[in-house]
Structure formats: structure tokens, C-alpha cells
Description:
The structure is a homodimer of 424-residue chains.
Chain A lengths: L7 E5 L4 E5 L11 E5 L3 E4 L1 E6 L15 H15 L2 H17 L2 E8 L2 H11 L2 E8 L11 H15 L7 E9 L5 H14 L3 E5 L7 H7 L3 H7 L8 E5 L5 H10 L1 E5 L1 H6 L7 H6 L4 E3 L12 H16 L7 H15 L16 E4 L12 H10 L6 E6 L2 E5 L2 E2 L4 H17 L1
Parallel strand pairs in A: 5-6, 6-7, 7-8, 8-9, 9-10, 10-11, 11-12
Antiparallel strand pairs in A: 1-2, 1-3, 4-13, 13-14, 14-15, 15-16
Helix pairs in contact in A: 2-3, 2-14, 4-5, 7-8, 11-12, 12-13
GO molecular function, one term (chains A, B): deaminase activity
InterPro entries (chains A, B): Amidohydro-rel, Metal-dep_hydrolase_composite, Metal_Hydrolase, MTA/SAH_deaminase
Pfam families (chains A, B): Amidohydro_1
Amino acid sequence: MTVHRPGFVDVDHAGRIEDVGDATQPPPAGTDHTTQRVSGVLLPGLVNVHCHSPMTLLRGSGEDLPLLQWLEEVVWPREGRMNADDTYWGMTLACAELLRFGVTTSCEMYFYPEAVVDAVRDAGSRCVVTAAVLVAPGMEHLGGWQSQLDTAIGLGDRYAGDADPRVEVGLAAHAAYTLPIEALTGIAEAAGQRDRLLQIHVAESQHEGAELEAEHGKSVPALLEDIGFFEPRRVLAAHSVWLSDEDLAIYRRAGVAVAHCPQSNTKLASGIARVTDFLEAGIAVGLGTDGPASNNDLDLWEEARLAPLLQRARTGEATALPAEAALGLPTRGGAQALGRPDLGVLERGRWADLVRLETADAAFVPMLTDRDLLAHLVWSASSRHVRDVWVAGRRVVANGVVLTVDEERARAEVQQRAERLATG
Amino acid sequence: MTVHRPGFVDVDHAGRIEDVGDATQPPPAGTDHTTQRVSGVLLPGLVNVHCHSPMTLLRGSGEDLPLLQWLEEVVWPREGRMNADDTYWGMTLACAELLRFGVTTSCEMYFYPEAVVDAVRDAGSRCVVTAAVLVAPGMEHLGGWQSQLDTAIGLGDRYAGDADPRVEVGLAAHAAYTLPIEALTGIAEAAGQRDRLLQIHVAESQHEGAELEAEHGKSVPALLEDIGFFEPRRVLAAHSVWLSDEDLAIYRRAGVAVAHCPQSNTKLASGIARVTDFLEAGIAVGLGTDGPASNNDLDLWEEARLAPLLQRARTGEATALPAEAALGLPTRGGAQALGRPDLGVLERGRWADLVRLETADAAFVPMLTDRDLLAHLVWSASSRHVRDVWVAGRRVVANGVVLTVDEERARAEVQQRAERLATG
Lengths: 424, 424
């Protein structure tokens, strides 16, 4: 189930859900689990399927500049100066933010993936880190694509199996238009051989792939399919704003999932993805915040509300993406998009990543039917109602306070490092 | 100024701002004022220019139904059963919500305007109440338009002058397509004679005025101009989503202001208003939440973020409605739209309606320039950062808690009344 009015949750020793039950039910006896009695409303931990969270370091910088000027004058120079420690602190502040908003899992794409993993492990959150293989001016210090890929594979090998069940390492190709074809096929082959999640940016803006499409005489999704990029079992295509019906058919038959980033896509005027069409076609869709430089926070509640708003603007249908479907996106939809059947739903065997909301608030009044609760969760609740959060059964947020991160220090580190990155 | 890092604020005995200064400045001596030393960031109290706030009673009810079915099966029957006491409690819960979000002034359009005024006075907030004159099936108990108008004029007479400086009473015609022409002219004449704010819904959905436009051979704004509806000094046209260039020129020359309701307009799939065009033409634009039955809360911070997102979706320009302009909408824009030069800006002589935000939070990190603060206020801050609120110098919210409303009772009243309204 996605929404639960507890009752209780039983969590086994490994941190997985053993049972959930309502207040009238006696919790099962036994010593092989812990029982958490909770009031209010319980949700599965939210899943942010596409973010570059360490970009907290660039939050609000160069706002309202035209895209290219912003990238060339603000983002790329600062990212070029970023080191692994900066990334660690950017990610640490992001973890505090994510956890406080009830986002227990994030799928990250950034440089210095090891620093990202370290921050996540220290903060007690959960993530899928996909190291971004990228060949771009100013980023030469990252090395060539093959060496970046080797590093990413090596990091993945270290976390393969049960090294830390909260950390999964995947692979990422930045985009078809920023990498040579042999890099794309090389990354995909590596992902396929090791069954790793494979992430890529596709069709974020309308004309980004125009040159490539002219050269190959086909759309970027068609090209990616042709070169075998969609062959790994789990492929996640971020954004996917500008897809034709044919592209959509490719996603469906190849089992490609979409990371939909509504706020980033509208803020940067990229466009509105065809989310209702994706869902109708049976394509898995999760929600992503994208990076805090372009959003500017990591609040998945905002995305869950914006997604249906934008589908209604796009289709002219006031019933597009109703509350239940919208709430499915950051929960079971996110788990599906990441190919993670161990997340996103409150049921036996899945990880006890839990979010408890305070419902003694005007946002939940009146409550006449169960349907009203779903409406309130999407349309009037927000991250401010998140009170307690658990990851694998461990409490990481209590009464709105993050227990696992020294937020004051994280803020000071990010402030000081951002000053250095800005001035060179 | 709109954003102020205090410092201090001096408030005179009447509740108006005498001086604002930064932390380095000594506050002026004297006994004719009180000095409030504050940390964090100070904004003028936000102004919600279009709402039907007592519809908290219908929040989340009949969600995701097609518009007409929702109105006919849910909204109208329940509103038909609503009495003045219901309205009072719906508005009381709304006042708590508004104040907690830092919204100190709301422009209300609803039945039982006297109950709305009573709730606002008890809650210590500020409002412009425009009684909605409406002729509609199921609403016969409200009386004919002339009798509704007489009641609204009478209420306004009682609050004319200095009866209560926190309460202004205006007039409202529900819409051109729900009232006979003589009612529209009658209401406008009454507003003009008494210099009252005159509010009306215009062009909310694409085809709502089609019949009327066919009959008169002109657009609704052109018709309203012809019959003198725009002659009063202060006219506020809510929504105004579907305006032609000619309609826009009419608004400009007649000095008509717009109440822009981005979330309501997208949720109901009405469309996206031409806000950047309005501003370019010098038309005053404020932000409205619309009623909690169609939004579903009264959080103006969400509107201030959604407005630029939608303008970017509409225009394809990533720099449309930059942060400073977006932040102007719920502050000075709202004051202009209501024709209220005593609100919306932190400066001497205006009402000391103040909102203090807590900025020791990830949403405000990093902060490298003053421009960053504006970006953070629009793109990563939210109503959860509102800590303290004053209306006319009186503290109504302290550390996030509303001092002037018994919220628990208000929630219980709304819950119980909503149950009755739902079942008849």
C-alpha cells in the first residue's frame, strides 16, 4: 500500500518491513522484530529518481540568466573548480534536506561519485549513485570517458552484493550529444554485463539533439536503441520532454523508464513531458528534482503537485493525473523507474523506509472520505507535514529534526566552499 | 522596499511603519512608537488578491471530477446548505492558515460577507471583503441581485471611514455570464459612487462567455467597458486567462487590475494567463489562491513560485518573470491590484503588516549576493520559513504559532460542518 493510517509497523532485524497494521489490530508477538506504533499518516520513503544533489553548492547562483550564459559563466567554471570535499559537503547538506522532506532514496548523477557515496553513508540515507561519464570543455581533469567509466565500474564493484544495502552504484552517460558513440556503447555494455542501473539525459530541450539527429537521420531515442544503449535491463532516461509517438513506442518496447523533472523543466523553459501518455503506455515514471542549481531545492512534494498541474496545462483536461496517480509517482513509480522492487510501497519484505506526517493541520481538514486523504496529500500537504523519517528501520528524522547530519556545520561548509568556487 | 534584512522596525501608535533600519543603525529615540528588533529577513505582509477562503469547508471534496459534475454534484449543493455560521468557521480556519503563511491581507469574494468580516476581525487579520452578487440555480435564498447589492452596500457603509482600518468592504459581480446587464451596471454604479473596490471574474475558462459574446458581437472585456463596468476607479478582474491583445488594451486604458490565480487555473485546466504581457503593458497584477476547494490551500508562496514557472512554460523563455518580479506580485503587486497604497511595501506610512522569515536553513544557503536572496525567496523558500507575523504592528503569529485563532477548535468546527454540508 502507498498510504497507511497506522497502527503499527513491524521491522525485522535487517531493516525490512515485516508487517503493517491498523490501530485496531494487535501487533504480532515475537522477538525477531521491533514494533513502531505511530499516529498520523505513514507513507513509504519518497524516491527522487533524478538529481545532482551536490549542486546545493550552486543554489541560486546566476539566477535568471539565459541558459547558455548561465552554464558558461556560472555553472561550468564553478564545477571545474569543485573537488571531492566540496562534493561531499554539497551532498551532506542535500542529504539533510532530502531526509527532512521525507525523501529517503535519491538517484544521483554527479562527479566524484565516491564523495557522494560517503556523504550518503554518513547521513544514513539511501541512494543509487550513477557516476556521470562526461566529455566537456573545462572538465578535462575528470579524464577521458574510458577512464571515468573504469572508475565508476570499480566503485560499483566495491558496493556490489551486500557491502552496504543502502548504497547502489549504477552507471550514467551524460547525454547522447555530449559523448561519442563508442562511449555510449561502452557504458551500456558495462551496465548490461553487470546488471547496473544505466542513466542518461534524453530530450531535455527541444533542439539539443538536432545535430546528432541530422547526422544519423533518426531521433536520439531511435539512435540509442540502434546502438544497443537500451539493452541493459534497467535504463532510466531523465527528462524525456520532447518525445514523438515513435520515441514513446521505443521506450515501451525497450522497457526504458522516465525520470520526470517538472519544476526544472518549466523553470528552464525546456517544456512539459508527456507524462499521462507515458503512464498510459505502461512506461515506468518517477519524479526527480534535478539539481538545486536549477530547481532550487530537493522538495519532491512540490514535484508531486506540479506534475498534475502541468499535465492539466498540457492536455486541457482537469482530470489529468488525478491525486492517486500523482502520489504514485514519488513512491511506487520512483521504485519502478529505478527497477527497485524493494522500495516505494509499505509491504512485507520491502525496506522500512518510512515517512510519518502530522495530519492535525488545516491542510487535512475536512476529511470525509479516504479519497479526501489522497487529495490532501497531493494538493494541500507539503514537506512541512513530514515529522519523522526512518531508513531501513533506523530513525533519521525525529519531530522534524534531522538526527544524522550536523546541519549547522553543513550550511557553513557549503557557504564557505561556494564563496571559494565563485571567486576561483 | 520589498525585502529587508533587519535591523529594526519602528511602528507608530496606529500600527503604521514609522521607520525601518538595518542592524548598524541606532533606532530613533522617542516615545511615540514601539521598536521591534528582528533577525532574519523581513517582508511586507503578503496580499492574496482573490480568494473564496471559507471554502476550506469544501477542501478536497469531489476531487478529480470533471468541472461541471463537480460543481453540480458537490460544490453547489453544499454551498446551498451553507449558513452564516458555517461561513464564519470556514473563514476562521482560513485566517489561521493565511496568517501562518504570512498572508496578512486577503481579498474575499463570498456569500455571507458579514460572517467573513466577523471572522477576520476576530482573527486579527486584514481583508477586503467583496460580497459576491450572484444569480444562480440553488442560490435563490440569497435573494435577487438588487437585494444582494443593497446588503453589500449597507455592510460597506458600516465599515466606511475608520470603523475598523483592517476591514474594507467592496463590491463584486460574480461574472458577466451569470448576471443580467442591468445588474452589472447597477453594481458598477454603486461602486463608482462610493469609490469601492469592484471585483469580477473574467475569462477564467476559454468558452465561458461565448454565448454572451455571440449575442453582443464583442468580447466580455469590451462589453464590460461599453456598459461602464470599468468606470469605477478600482476594478479587479480575477483570472483573465483568455484575453486578446484588444482586451489587454482595454484593461490598460481603463486601469483594470488582474488577480492572477496560477494554481487554480492550471488545476482546473483553465489555461495560463498572459502575466508577462500584463506587466509589460503596465497593468497591475496581484496573486490569488482562489478558493481552497479548487487549489486546495491558501499558500501564496506556492503561487509566487508557480507564476514564473507557468510564464516560462507559456513563453518558452527561461528568463520570463525573474525572481524580483515574481516576488513583487504577492507584495507591491497585490497592493497595486487592490488600489491600496497603504500595503505591500516596507516604508514609512504604510501599515506595519510584517512577515519575518527564518533564514538559518538550507533553502538560503549559499548566499553570495543580494540577488541570491531574491532567488532563494522565490525558488527555495516557502511558507515553512515564516516564523513571525504582525498586522498593523500587532503580533499575530509567534514562532510559527497563530496567537489569535484557536486552531484546534476551528479544525473541529470545519470538520463537523463539512460533514453536515456533505450529507444534507
